Amino acid sequence: MVSRVAPLSAKPLPTELRHIEAEPYYEAVAGEIALFEAAYASTLPVLLKGPTGCGKTRFIEHMAWRLKRPLVTVSCHDDLTAADLVGRYLITNNETLWVDGPLARAVRAGAICYLDEVVEARRDTTVVIHPLADDRRMLPMEKHGELLQAPPEFLLAMSYNPGYQSVLKELKHSTRQRFVAIEFQYPQAALEEKIIRTETGADAGTAAALVRLAQMTRNLKGNGLDEGASTRLLVHAAKLIARGIAPAAACHGAVSEALSDDPEMLRAIDEFVSSVF
Amino acid sequence: MTARRSSTELTQELDYLLSPVLSSRRTAAPLADLLAPLPRPQQDFVLHWVEVIDRSNYEMAYQFAAAAPAALAKMDTNAVEAWILQALDTYDRDGLYRGSLVFKEIENYLPAAADAHAATFEQHAPVLELYACGLAGRRLQLDVAAEPYTDTETLFLPPRIAQFADAAANFNLYKVIITLLWAQGRYGTFHTDIISACAAYADPQRATTLLSHFETLRLESRIATVLPGVARDLARLRGDTVDPRCAVLQDPAATVQDSISLLANLYDGFEIPTLPHHTALRAEAATTRNKRLQRERSALAEALAQMLPEQAADKSPEAAADRIEIQAKPAPGAEGDFDVEVRLDGMPMAPPDHVAQLLDSILQDLGEIPDDYLQAAGPGNQNLSADDESVDENKTIANDDSGARLYREWDHKRRHYRKDWCVLRELDVSPVDNGFVENTLARYRPQVAQLKRSFEMLRDEDRLLKRQATGDDIDFDALIAGYADLRSGMELPDRLLTRRHKAERDLAALFMVDMSGSTKGWINDAERESLVMLCEALEVLGDRYAIYGFSGVTRKRCEIFRIKRFDEAYDQDVKQRIAGITPQDYTRMGAAIRHLTKLLNEVDARTRLLVTLSDGKPDDYSDHYRGEYGIEDTRQALIEAHHAGIKPFCITIDHEARDYLPHLYGPVNWTLVDNVERLPLKVADIYRRLTA
To answer: In terms of CATH, what superfamily is B436-454+505-691?
Structure first.
C-alpha cells in the first residue's frame, strides 16, 4: 500500500533542501551531462565514481541547477544509520513528533538526493537505498508506518571513490548494480587550465604551471602517493597565488603538504614546484 | 661502563661469526688483536655490523672486520655506517669483488666523507627517484656512473657532486642533470642515430661531445617552455651568453637535426666550454630505445585486443587494429604533450590506464603514433607443446609421500586446467636462534612504538550500540518508541540505553611471503624485519593471522613453509622461524595461492585477507611457467580465491609491478614499496590502511 504524503504542518523545520539559483561553473569533460540527463529522464539512480577533488560534487550541483531541482547533500560517515536518512521521532510537549530525515525530505520534494562517499555509511543504510534505487522507487519508513513513493522528479545519486584500498570499504555489488555509473577523471590539460583560470582568475602561465605540477604528482600515484594532486588542490593553490603568496609557498601549503607527510615525498614535490615556476 | 673485550674474547666472537671463511691459514686472531684496543662501544659496533653483513656474505663481513679499525680511526660511526652501506650496495649490484674493494680501498672513500657540502647519490636517491618518476610518467631507473648519460631507461648520475661549496647547489645540480637526461629522451635527441652522425668526423669523440653541448643548449630552450625553474638553473650554470652562432638552437621548435647541421658547420674551431652539467651521449640509448619500441608495440597490440568488447567474435590483434583507431595530436599550449583520442568503431572511448601509459611512452619515443603502428605485431604465439609429462606420475608421487598434495594449474593457451599438475608439500622453517627479532625491535624501537599506537587506535574504534539494557547514555529513539508503547498501555521496555562498544574485527589475514632465490640479501632481511613489525602490530590488534612462505622448483616440488599457523601464538618458536626464513628457489605462485586459499577458507571470519609479499613476477625453472603462462595461472588462482570470498592483496617491491600487478590483483589491490629499506616500516602500515 502506498500511503498519501502527510503534510508536516505543526512545526516547519529548517530544511537542507537547496535551490541553486546561480549556475555553478562546470566544464563538461565528455558526455556526462547528456548521460546524467538521460538517466534522470528514465528515473534511474546515478553513481559518480572518481578520485577526490575531480568535480563530482560540483557536477551534481550543476545538474541540480540545470534540471531545476532542489538538492539535498548528505555527507556519509561511519555512524550514519538508516534512521539518520529516513527520519525519527522527537519529543515535544509530552508528545512524540515525527521528523523526516534528509532522504525522506528529498523524496517528498522530488529533489536530487546526493549521498557523498556512500561507502562510509553503516551497512544498514542499504536497506533504505535498495528499494529506492530499483524500479520500485519506494522509501519504506518502518517506524512511521509509511511507504513513500518517489515522484518522477526525485533522483538518488551517490559518489564513490574506487581508489580506496580498504577491503572493508568496497561497494557491494547488489548496491552498485542498481546505479548508472558515471566515471570521473581529472580533465585534460587544456581543460584543467581553463577551469583553474575561470575559478580563480589566474593568468595563463600560472594555470599551465599548476597543471604541469599536477601531472607530475599524478605520475607518482602508486609510487609513493595514493592520489595525485586533484583539480581542487590546484584551485586552492591558484587562489593563494592570486592573493600574493609566492608560488613556491602557495604550492607547498596547498599541494605538497596536502598530498603527503613523508619528508622525502614533500621534498620531491617541492622540487617539482621549483621546476615548473 | 662495560669493560672492553679482550683479544681472546674477540677471537671467540669472530670465530663464531666468520667461521665459514676462516681456515688454518686465515684465523680470527689478527683481526681480534686490531680490535682489542678499541673502546667497548666501538667493539660492539664492529661486531654488530659483522653480524649484519654476515647475512649478505661472510667474506664481506671478514673484509669489513679487517678494515674497521682503520675506518673508525678516521671517521665517526655515522660515516662508517654510510661507508658500510655503500659497500653492501656495491656488493648487491656488482658482486663480491667490487663490494670488498670498497672495504679495502677505504682511502678512496675518505675524501668524499670529509667534504660536508658534497651531495651524494646515496643520500639523495630517494628524492631524485621520485623526482624522475614524476617528470617522466614512465618509470626511469637511476644509477651511478662516472659520467652522466642515459640509455633512455636508466639515468646514470655521478656518485657524488661537490662542485659547489653549498650542499643545496650540489643537490640542485643532480636535479638539473636528471631533467636534462629526461629531456634528451622526451624531446627527441635519440630520434636519429646520433652516434653514426658523429662517426664520420676525424675525431668522433670531439664530435659527440660537441653535439652533446649543442643538444644541451637546444633542450634548455625546450625545458624553458615547461619547466622554467630548471631552465633558469641551466642558464645560470651555463654562465655567459650563448655563442651567437648557436642562436638557431634557442628556438623552442629546433630539433636534433638543427644540432647535427650546426655540428657540421662548427666542428672546426668551436671551443667547447666545460659545463658542470655536461652529459655524454652513448650508443646504448639507440639500442635500448629500439628494444623498448618493439616490446611496447606488441604489448600495445595485445592490450588493444583486450579492449574489444567481451562479445566480439574475433579478439585477435588484427581485428583490434581494424576496429580501433588512435589519434594523437600535440596538445595546444603544452609543449611536448599529446591529446590522445582512442576510437572503437568510430566511437570515442577512454583507454584503460595501462594502455594510456603505453601510448604515452610510445609518443615520448616517436613523437607520433604512426598509421601502421597497430598492424601486425608479429607472431608471438607459438603453441605450447602438448603435455610432455604424464599426470599419472604425479599421482604416484602423491601416494608415496603422505605429506604431498596435488593442485591443478590453469593453462591459458588451452583455456582449461591441467588437473593434479602441481605437487605441493608443507614444510617447517627450521628455527634459528640468533636474536634477529630482538635486534630488529631494538633497531626500530621508536617506529614500533608508533606503530603500536596507531594500531591501538584502530582497535579502540568505538561503535555505538543501541537499545542496550546497560549503557552510558540514553537512546532517544528507543525511549520515544518505548514512551509511545507506554502511552498505548504496553510495558516500557528495559532496553533504553546506548553503549559504546569496541568494534568486532572479524578478520583473518594470511601473509604469503616470497622465499624465492631472488630475495637473497637485503630483500630477505627486509622481509623478515617486516614480519617482525607486522607481528608486533597484529598482536596489539588481535586479528587472527598466519604467515607462510612459498618457493619451489618445477611443478613437482612446490613448497609451502609454515612460519606461523592461525592457531599458533606469536611465541619464541615463531620468532625463531621468522629469523630462519632463507631464500630458496623459484616462485610458482599459482599452487601456493591455491593451497593457502584452502587454509584460509577453513578459518571462520567475515573478512579473509590473503596478503602476498613479493619481489617480482611469478617464475619457475624451465617448464614455461615464466612469463604469460605463470601470470595467467596466478591470475586464475587469485580469481578462485576471490570466488571463495577471500580478498587478495599484494605488496611488492618490483619496480615493474605496474605492468602486471593490475592484471593480477585489479587496479587497487596492490601497492608498490619503492625502497626496500622502507619495507619493514611500510608493511604494517599498509595492513592498517587496508583494514581500517
So the answer is: von Willebrand factor, type A domain (3.40.50.410)
